[in-house]
């Protein structure tokens, strides 16, 4: 898509130069009153052309890379979210087989750490889902912006070709210059609208990511901004039987 836009820009430059050449030749042979009418129109067209290429240069210089963005979005799910989600399903007493052989206060405390561990893992999956969704939106947003730009420039090139032909008739040079000015002003507006629309679209995705960051900063399920402990004070005594109430006992 970027290559197509660059080709259209080249065609705009080529046809604009042909239009100026035709108009300048016409100004030499036109009656004075028509030549005087043509010159300010060419000056305005020249100014608009400079503005157009300035705006296009800004966009082309920062094209973005949709395949890279979309690939990163997919990786967050396939490489992080998916595997982590699989771990969450295993963090249950029956899956971990915690109480198959041991019982007691310490054994119970160990089992009670599972819900916080599971919640922390599920929090990662929620984050990767948000990243995947919003990066995908940004990737396709870039594609949509370039597609819109390509359509606008294609229409502009078609209009310029008509104006070039009109200017070649000599008498049609003044209205051709005026028409090209209108077309150029229109496409400048379209380029600006596309860029603003894309930035607004990106702003919405940034808001979603900010919301997730704020949720994570709320320390739930990450107390103190850290991963929850997989141990408790009830587990600090690893003795089997010393009479302090935290003894581990074999099940019979």
Explain the overall architecture.
There is one protein chain. The chain has one domain. The longest helix has 54 residues. Helix content is 76%, strand content 2%. The protein has 252 residues and is mainly alpha-helical. The termini are far apart. The chain has a two-stranded antiparallel sheet. Helix 1 runs parallel beside helix 6. The chain has seven helices and two strands; from the N terminus they run ααααβαααβ.
Beta strands, count: 2
Tally of contiguous helical segments = 7
Number of domains: 1
Helix content: over 70%
Q: Which value, in Å, is the CA radius of gyration? A: 33 Å
Structural class: mainly alpha
The global form is rod-shaped
SSE series:
HHHHEHHHE
Key structural traits:
252 residues; two-stranded antiparallel sheet; mainly alpha; single chain; 7 helices; rod-shaped
């Amino acid at each position: 898509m970027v290559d197509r836009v660059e080709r259209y820009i080249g065609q705009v430059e080529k046809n604009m130069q042909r239009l100026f050449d035709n108009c300048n030749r016409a100004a030499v042979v036109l009656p004075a009153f028509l030549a005087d009418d043509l010159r300010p129109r060419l000056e305005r067209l020249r100014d608009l052309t400079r503005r157009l290429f300035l705006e296009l240069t800004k966009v082309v210089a920062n094209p973005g890379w949709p395949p890279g963005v979309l690939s990163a979005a997919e990786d967050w799910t396939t490489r992080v979210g998916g595997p982590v989600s699989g771990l969450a399903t295993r963090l249950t007493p029956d899956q971990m087989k915690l109480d198959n052989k041991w019982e007691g206060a310490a054994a119970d405390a160990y089992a009670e750490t599972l819900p916080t561990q599971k919640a922390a893992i599920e929090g990662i999956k929620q984050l990767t889902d948000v990243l995947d969704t919003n990066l995908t939106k940004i990737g396709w947003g870039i594609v949509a912006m370039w597609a819109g730009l390509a359509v606008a420039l294609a229409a502009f090139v078609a209009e310029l070709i008509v104006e070039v032909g009109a200017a070649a008739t000599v008498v049609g040079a003044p209205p051709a210059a005026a028409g090209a000015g209108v077309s150029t002003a229109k496409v400048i507006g379209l380029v600006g609208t596309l860029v603003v629309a894309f930035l607004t679209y990106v702003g919405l995705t940034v808001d979603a990511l900010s919301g997730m960051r704020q949720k994570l900063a709320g320390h739930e399920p990450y107390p103190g901004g850290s991963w929850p402990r997989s141990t408790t004070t009830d587990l600090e005594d690893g003795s089997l039987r010393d009479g302090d109430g935290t003894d581990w006992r074999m099940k019979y």
